[in-house]
Amino acid sequence: NAVPVITIDGPGGAGKGTVTQLLAQRLGWHLLDSGALYRLTALAASRQGVSLDDEAALVSVATSLDARFEPSEPGQPVRVILDGDDVTAELRTERCGDNASRVAVMQPVRDALLQRQRDFQQAPGLVADGRDMGTVVFPDAPTKIFLTASAEERARRRYRQLKDSGLSVTIDALLDEIRARDERDMNRSAAPLKPAEDAQVIDSTGLSIEEVLDKVMAFAGQA
Ligand code: C5P
């Protein structure tokens, strides 16, 4: 498949989602939010009464996911439809993210979602956001970015987002969750979170979205 791919991997809260969306928009390319597939698997499982410990049942949930991604207004999140219901907001909760990272440690679940992710590689190009886009799903991607930021910075960003949407949380609680999720994502044996050998690492701590975007465009030869 000669369609170009830019992979954006890194821990949660580093700004991958926003950067991926703006980049895809600017280039007119497709977008893959791979985390949404793990979140959908966790959500579909809980709706079907499937335990997050039941690997075989989770594989069948992942294989038979009936999900659609619908383009939205610029700047708005892509709408995600599961079994006909709009689950966009539910998918973004901390609980769903945490459950996603629990199902994501299971290699058979990852295998079940692999081809679905690769199917997003369509002309004229793809920007793929996740943890293992450059290492496992698109190892031949010509441009690989590993976007990171300090845990404290990521907690502050998440706090601002949640406060804007009216939820009450503390920075300390968010920091604990972020550290726990990092720990699980980096130390699992199945596709652990780490930069691909040929990835460009960008630390977004203290950078604006525009500054990050300019760096990525320069690495991709699209500046
Ligand atoms: O990026 P997002 O926060 O939506 O991802 C939720 C969880 O899904 C992550 O914490 C990670 O455990 C898992 N994930 C993964 N591989 C990906 C994308 C997400 O394991 N490519």
From TrEMBL:
Transmembrane segments: none annotated. It catalyses: dCMP + ATP = dCDP + ADP; CMP + ATP = CDP + ADP. The keyword Signal does not apply. Coiled coil: none annotated. Its EC number is 2.7.4.25. Residues 6-219 form the Cytidylate kinase domain. CDD domains: CMPK (cd02020). ATP binds at residues 10-18. It is found in: Cytoplasm. This is Cytidylate kinase. GO terms for molecular function: kinase activity. Belongs to the cytidylate kinase family. Type 1 subfamily. Keywords: ATP-binding, Cytoplasm, Kinase, Nucleotide-binding, Transferase. It holds the Pfam family Cytidylate_kin. Its main location: cytoplasm.
